[in-house]
Amino acid sequence: MFPDNSIYIVGESKTSTNNAITQQYNGFFIALVVNRDSGEILDAECTSTIDITSNFVKAMFTSKNITDLDFLLEQIESRYFGSSQKALMVAFKNANIKYLQITNK
Questions:
Q1: Where is average pLDDT lowest: 4-8, 30-34, 45-49, 65-69?
Q2: Bigger pLDDT: 48 vs 54
Q3: How far apart are CA 103 and CA 39, in angstroms?
Q4: What is the SS3 assignment for 25?
Q5: Pairing, β 28-35 against β 6-13
Q6: Residue 17 has what pLDDT?
Q7: What is the pTM of this model?
Q8: 10-37: buried (b, 16+ CB within 10 Å) or exposed (e) per residue?
Q9: What is the pLDDT of residues 13-39, one digit of tens each?
């Protein structure tokens, strides 16, 4: 399903205690499949209680580059208005750091 040079990265963060995601999962997670060499995000999914949330996040991240941190954070801030907006931003930053560590960039 994914090429041999792809890697799987999970970014994590906390959400507010009254958030349904926290109540169900005890945190917020974004999972990314990334081309190790180019940084292209091949697939994305996040913890959610509603399927459309994960589908929207997938559409926002797929085919983008994980190293375009500022652009993707701006996309989250200007397009994603779910109660876990800040958690998504923190989780993506966490995934970005992991990618840079893995690839030594």
A1: 45-49
A2: 54
A3: 9
A4: helix
A5: antiparallel
A6: 60
A7: 0.88
A8: ebbbbbeeebebbeeeeebbbbbbbbee
A9: 876 666 555 555 567 899 999 999 999
C-alpha distance from residue 16 to each of 5, 20, 60 (Å): 36, 9, 23
- Sign of the torsion angle spanned by Cα atoms 104, 33, 40, 27: negative
2, two tokens: 């994914």
Dist. CA 34–CA 17, nearest whole Å: 30
How does DSSP assign 37-103, residue by residue?
TT-BEEEEEE--SSHHHHHHHHHHHTTSBTT-HHHHHHHHHHH--STTHHHHHHHHHHHHHHHHHHH
Q: Contact, 31 vs 4, CB < 8 A?
A: no
pLDDT at 20: 52
**Is residue 48 very low, low, confident or very high in pLDDT (cuts 50, 70, 90)?**
confident
